[in-house]
Amino acid sequence: MSKNNLESFEYSSLLGKTIGDDYRIEKILGLGGMGAVFYAKQLSSWQDVALKVILPNKATDTTLVQRFLREARAGLLLSHPNIVKTYKYSKTADGLLFIVMEYVKGETLQNHLQAKGRLSLEKTLEFLKQLSNALETAHKHKVLHRDLKPENILIAKLENGLEIAKLTDFGIAKILSSEQGKTSTTILTGTGQVIGTPKYMSPEQLLGLATKHTTDIYSLGLIVYRMLTGSTPLEFEKKEGAIFKVTQDLAPISQKFSFLPIDFDPIFKKVLNRDSNARYQRAKDFFNDFAFVASKYPDLVIPPLNMYNNEEASITITPTVLQSKTD
Length: 327
Description:
By secondary structure, the protein is an alpha+beta fold. Helix content is 33%, strand content 21%. It folds into two domains: 8-102, Phosphorylase Kinase, domain 1, CATH 3.30.200.20; 106-317, Transferase(Phosphotransferase) domain 1 (Transferase(Phosphotransferase), domain 1), CATH 1.10.510.
C-alpha cells in the first residue's frame, strides 16, 4: 500500500467517530502534508464545521506539530469575513490533535480557475478587493501567510448568489511577536530550505531569504495575474525557471497579453518587483491602483481561454543560487 493510500486508510478510520466529545466526523474533505481535513457536525449546536486532524502516530514529528499549532494560533488571531474562521484547537486523551474551523461549502480558487480558465475584469477586481482586505487584517496582526496561492483560497457562494473568497491554510505562516521591544519568531524551516509552491513564491522565498509582508503581496500579484490571463508570468517547473525569476525582470503584462491595456503594466511591474522595497507596501494600495485602472475600462472583455496548465504541486526545494538562513 502506498504512503498516500495508507494515510487515507488511517484517517478514514475516524469516520463516524466523535472527537473532543462534541464533533462527529462525517466525511473526509482532503488529505495534505499536515494531516486530513474533515466535514463534521458539532453535536452541541448542530453546526457544520471543518476539522483539521493529526493522528497520534504523527504527533511525534515536532516540526509538524509546531506548524499545526502555529496555524491554529494564527487562525485564532484573525477575524475577517474573507479569512476562514478558527474556533478552537485541542488534543484528545489518546493524542489526536485537531483544529475546529468554519466549514466553507464551495471550491478552491484553483479548481475555480481550472474550470473557468480566466476571470472577467469585474470578477478579478471583486476577488482582489476581498483578498487584499484579508491580507490587510493578517498583516495588521503581524501574521504573514507565506503560502498564498489559489489552492489556499476558498470560493463560497452565498444564498444571494454572490461569491466570496476566503483565505485559508496558515500552516507555514509566520507570526511576529513583540517582546520587550524586540521582534521574535520561531524558526521552523531548516537552513537553505524553502517550503511552498514555486509558481507563487516571491524571489526572496526562492532564494531562502527573510520574508516580510511584501512577500504575501507579491504572491497576491501572481494570483491576480493568473485570474486575468490564465497563467503565471513564468510557468516553470525546473530550477532554471526559478533562477530567471530572481535575476530577470518580468515582461510587461500587456506585451504578453494584447487584450490588456498598457495601463496595467506599471501596476504589475510594481507588485511583482524583484526588490521587495520597491513593491506595494500594503495590499490595499495594490487594490486601489488596480481598481482605478479597471474603472477606465468598464467594457474590457477578457477572451476565454481554451487551454491552460494545471497548478503546480507544493514541493520542498533547496535553492542553489544563494545560501542563507530562512526565517
